[in-house]
């Protein structure tokens, strides 16, 4: 029996999460926090709504993630006029250190995921994923 494509995607994502989860637990990170750190490393600072829009998640979810990260001193928020929704979010030095360790671990996982793939196959896979995203959302994956 042939495995349906959507099942292959779900199982691959589940396997990746399984490889990442023990590391996140050791670092005390929740599953939503690495992507916030990644965004802040690239953008230095942003507004909470920017994170929600980029990752297509509810602003309330972003707020909960940020509150937990703020308690751990991974990020800092500066409220503007007492409105948390328009607060500026920035990564702290501690957040940068956690991100650096996280990148090492994620690179190791990526090497395992792509073991046996040629550079050309890796480039093709990335292109296919970008095209799938564009087909489903109408947007470019950036």
Question: Could you explain the architecture of this structure?
Answer:
There is one protein chain. By secondary structure, the protein is an alpha+beta fold. It has a single domain, classed as Winged helix-like DNA-binding domain superfamily/Winged helix DNA-binding domain (Arc Repressor Mutant, subunit A, Orthogonal Bundle), CATH 1.10.10. Helix content is 67%, strand content 13%. It has a three-stranded antiparallel beta sheet with strand order 1-3-2. A hairpin with a 2-residue loop joins strand 2 (75-80) and strand 3. It is globular. The model has no long low-confidence stretch (mean pLDDT 93).
Largest sheet: 3 strands, antiparallel
Count of discrete alpha- or pi-helical segments spanning 4 or more residues:
6
Over the alpha carbons, how many angstroms does the gyration radius reach?
Answer: 17 Å
Low-confidence stretches: none
- Determine the mean pLDDT: 93
- Count of structural domains: 1
- Please report the distance between the alpha carbons of the first and last residues: 36 Å
Shape: globular
CATH superfamily assignment? Winged helix-like DNA-binding domain superfamily/Winged helix DNA-binding domain
CATH topology-level fold name: Arc Repressor Mutant, subunit A
Tell me what portion of residues adopts beta-strand conformation.
5-15%
The second-level CATH architecture is Orthogonal Bundle
Task: Give the helix/strand layout.
Layout: H1 5-27, H2 33-43, E1 45-47, H3 48-55, H4 59-71, E2 75-80, E3 83-91, H5 93-113, H6 119-137
Antiparallel strand pairs: 1-3, 2-3
Helix pairs in contact: 1-5, 2-5, 3-4
């Amino acid at each position: 029996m042939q495995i349906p494509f959507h099942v292959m995607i779900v199982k691959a994502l589940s396997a990746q999460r399984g490889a990442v989860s023990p590391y996140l637990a050791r670092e005390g990170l929740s599953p939503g926090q690495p992507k916030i750190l990644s965004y802040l490393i690239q953008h230095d600072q942003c507004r909470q709504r920017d994170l929600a829009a980029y990752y297509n998640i509810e602003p309330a979810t972003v707020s909960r993630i940020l509150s937990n990260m703020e308690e751990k001193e991974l990020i800092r928020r500066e409220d503007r006029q007492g409105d948390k929704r328009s607060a500026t979010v920035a990564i702290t030095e501690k957040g940068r250190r956690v991100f650096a360790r996280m990148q090492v671990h994620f690179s190791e996982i990526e090497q395992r995921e792509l073991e046996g793939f040629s550079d050309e196959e890796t480039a093709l896979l990335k292109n296919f994923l970008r095209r799938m995203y564009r087909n489903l959302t109408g947007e470019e994956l950036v």
